[in-house]
Amino acid sequence: MVDYDSEADAYDATRGGVPRAEAAAQAVLGLLPHDTATLLDLGCGTGIVTSRLDRPGLRVFGLDASPGMARMALGRGVPVALASATRLPLADARVDAVSAVWLLHLLCDPGAVAAVVAEAGRVLRPGGVFVTTVDKDAGHDVGSDVDAVLAAYRRARASDEADAVTAYAASAGLRPAGRARFRGHGQGRTPNAVAQGVLAGRYASLLEPQGTAPAELAARLGTLPAPDTPRGEPTYELRAFVRT
Description:
The protein is an alpha/beta fold and 244 residues long. 33% of the residues lie in helices and 20% in strands. Strand 4, helix 4 and strand 5 form a beta-alpha-beta unit. The chain is globular and about 55 Å long.
């Protein structure tokens, strides 16, 4: 698994940087009602997206479990709380919106995903909106040779699968309220980069835990042609849910 504290300083440079963050922030803002006054961004990481969730009248707060990531977010001027998204340090019905960008796919335990969605519903005011990415890993390398190799090792069901997230949302009193897609600029992956990530444990949320052999998978990726040529950039999907 990724050690987010140790990777905080270099994290953004390896994940698309500002262009990807700008695209994500604009997509999130496009799903928020115009009168949204407060937004809590769960798993805010370095704050590169959170700091761009900016429009007149909107106050944004971040939350992350990693001290290293929270330090980076604070450096970007994001007010941030250090806590788990499965147990938010807020009273009921306190905010107008909650966002979770590239968070749910990291939670391999379905119970943890359900807990995050439930907590989002709990802290939202009636009429408030929860916005989250879904099917994150499925947006990468679609139809490419990298995707074909990964397919044999992929989990049967991703933790952020859209249908599952929608079901968790319904249990939390949240109903579907829209969706959006955006480009993952700078995220076209090379076979060698994916192989290195597999060996470093960065794909634990993607890979089937039973019988997965990282070295074997990395070796297969290393046999692909043009191993240092990026494949196509991913397209990510956001789903919005409103508190009833």
